[in-house]
Design goal:
604 residues; mainly alpha; Hypothetical protein af1432
Length: 604
């Protein structure tokens, strides 16, 4: 049993590598026929992987439930190896870690708990919190706090274990507050605690002998100093405390990087009113231009990520400060665009395999920072496409398919039953604008899903209950993301309501009443198109068996009046020409959409 259990973890690793390799195939430079053949073979291969993964995960979980110490040891070492080799599947790893934490807390094994607390908090933060499932926020915070509670044992630990305390401080003062806004109130407290702890005589000597610990402390310091923008407002919470800690930092650390010292003195001089906000802007602009002249590029190293983060902080601060400058909106817009373009270029040059939840968050933040300075829905939708939707190949292609299907359905309605679209005319959407509106609705309908990347791209196994709960959050995530921008008003109900039943009796979100929406007919069109694509897709949704179009039609017929708009379903059922076009779209047409989309993503 022990050897079989150990082999199961090795099999998981092989499966994850295999899945990554299968995804790489999508970006091969092949002609259409050859690429299409590869796509079909890949789909068959992933179905085999899927079943193998499901069986292996079930075996690991049921075996670990036997509470055998040897099995826990194997599981711990396997997960540690996964982290060392940067092998990720948080939905699989998190439940295993929860079992290991419960076991080792009973054993009082703080050596293993330090590793588990840190990585459990990190995985949950990156996987669930960044996807909008904030039910995990206290678990994440508590996990990092449990590390700090072990500080009294600091001197007994190895150098690698000691460094984990400062990684926990980094997460509490930087990473976690960036994801959960309410935890920003804790930044100053935990940073002061870091300084107090690091400069204790009994601790300082150990830190000076530990290069890993020193590196991690400097990461915390840099993040703290570069995060000054949230304290620029004179009414900001803990503003005075923050700048006093900046001063203490500059006096305490004698070998900070040149740029870190520089940013510290710049913001401190502004705080002490040695110059006004216009001069602060000019000094930060100078630093931003210096980053530009470096021609930064992502190379996968921690240093390149950190340098990009520092540049992002300076760049974002300039966008924040510009609100206070006495220049007109046109000038502000031009300047914000000029600031943002180099960041867009940096991100566009990244290999798709390097997209992380952090980079996805940056892309979202970039869009949101530009939103006030953009004119009209077309400009905004174009940027959403560039920054967010096109960066998620599976969701992007699904949106393209929903667009094609919904346009076919809408044209049928316009020809044979235009009165169905009267509600849209009543809100000012008519004539040639109708098709454009439906097409744009289709491209935006899963915007919230693009902000839920980790779950959606997990095609190698069944989703956990928590993952499915994350998926159910995606309609409202779009609403939060777009805030109160009135240009998106005609699309909001479609984003929120496309998973609701036609009669309002089922689907999600529960608290949205699609039956009272002024855009209900658009919701119904997108909902049917969404179901048609999802149910017949065997190329992108490799975890499903897929249905032929005629079988799906019968399901639509059975659910008409309850789940689906009966008028739209009847129109499809009665028109053989439309059925033929939709059948083509979900078969050969899908293959062409896939080919062109991946080619576009690869070349963009």
């Amino acid at each position: 049993m022990d050897s079989e259990f150990k082999l199961a973890f090795l099999k998981v690793k092989d499966i994850l590598y295999d899945l990554a390799g299968q995804n790489d195939l999508l970006f091969l430079d092949l002609e259409y026929d050859e690429w299409n053949l590869m796509l079909k073979k890949r789909s068959e291969k992933i179905r085999e992987i899927f079943q193998s993964y499901v069986d292996t995960i079930l075996f690991i979980n049921t075996t670990l439930d036997k509470n055998d110490p040897i099995l826990y040891d194997i599981a711990y070492k396997s997960i540690a190896k996964f982290k060392e080799e940067e092998i990720h599947d948080s939905g699989f790893i998190i439940p295993i870690m929860e079992k290991l934490i419960a076991y080792y807390e009973k054993q009082g094994n703080r050596h293993r708990l330090l590793f588990l607390y840190l990585n459990y908090g990190y995985e949950c933060m990156e996987y669930y919190l960044r996807m909008g499932n904030f039910s995990y926020k206290e678990k994440v915070r508590d996990s990092f706090l449990k590390i700090l509670k072990l500080k009294e044992h600091y001197q007994e630990l190895t150098n690698a274990e000691k460094a984990r305390f400062f990684i926990a401080y980094y997460n509490l003062t930087s990473a976690l507050p960036d994801v959960v806004e309410e935890y920003q109130k804790d930044i100053v407290y935990f940073y002061q605690d870091l300084l107090d702890f690091s400069f204790k005589d009994s601790i300082k000597i150990h830190i000076e002998e530990n290069e890993d610990a020193i590196d991690e402390i400097y990461y915390v310091v840099e993040a703290f100093l570069y995060g000054f923008a949230r304290y620029l407002d004179k009414n900001a919470l803990y503003r005075d405390e923050y700048f006093h800690l900046v001063e203490r930092t500059l006096n305490s650390f004698k070998d900070l990087k040149k740029d870190t010292l520089r940013i510290g003195h710049i913001i401190l001089d502004y705080y002490y009113k040695k110059y006004d906000i216009d001069v602060l802007f000019l000094k930060l602009e100078e630093m931003n231009n210096e980053y530009l002249n470096k021609n930064l590029a992502f190379d996968g190293t921690e240093d390149s990520i950190l340098e990009f983060c520092n540049w992002m902080d300076i760049n974002s601060s300039l966008k924040e400060i510009i609100k206070y400058l006495n220049i007109d909106k046109k000038e502000k817009k031009a300047y914000v665009k000029m600031l943002t373009e180099p960041i867009l270029k940096y991100i566009s040059l990244m290999n798709y395999k390097d997209y992380t939840s952090y980079i996805d968050d940056i892309s979202s933040d970039l869009f949101y920072s530009m939103l006030p300075y953009m004119d009209g829905i077309d400009e905004k939708v174009d940027l959403i496409q560039r920054l967010i939707i096109r960066r998620q190949p599976i969701t992007y292609i699904h949106s393209l398919m929903v667009k094609r299907i919904s346009e076919e359905i809408t044209m049928k309605i316009l020809r044979d039953c235009p009165s169905l679209l009267k509600p849209l005319e009543n809100v000012g959407i008519r004539g040639a604008d109708l098709l454009d509106y439906i097409g744009c609705s289709a491209m935006l309908h899963d915007l919230g899903k693009c902000l839920t990347v980790g779950v959606i791209n997990c095609q190698g196994r069944r989703l956990t209950e928590d993952e499915f709960e994350c998926i159910k959050l995606h309609p409202k995530r779009a609403l939060v993301f777009l805030k109160d921008d009135s240009d998106f008003n005609p699309y909001i109900d479609i984003m929120i309501g496309h998973h609701k039943f036609y009669d309002g009796s089922g689907g999600y979100p529960i608290d949205f009443d699609n039956t009272k929406s002024k855009y209900r007919i658009a919701i119904d069109i997108i909902s049917i198109a969404d179901s048609i694509d999802a149910a017949t897709d065997i190329l992108g949704r490799n975890y499903t068996m897929g249905k032929d179009f005629n079988t799906l039609l019968m399901e639509l017929k059975e659910s008409m009046g309850k789940r689906y708009n009966p008028d739209i379903v009847s129109l499809i059922l009665e028109d053989d020409e439309l059925k033929d076009r939709l059948t083509y779209l979900v078969t050969e047409g899908r293959e062409k959409v896939y080919f062109m989309a991946y080619k576009e993503i690869k070349e963009s």
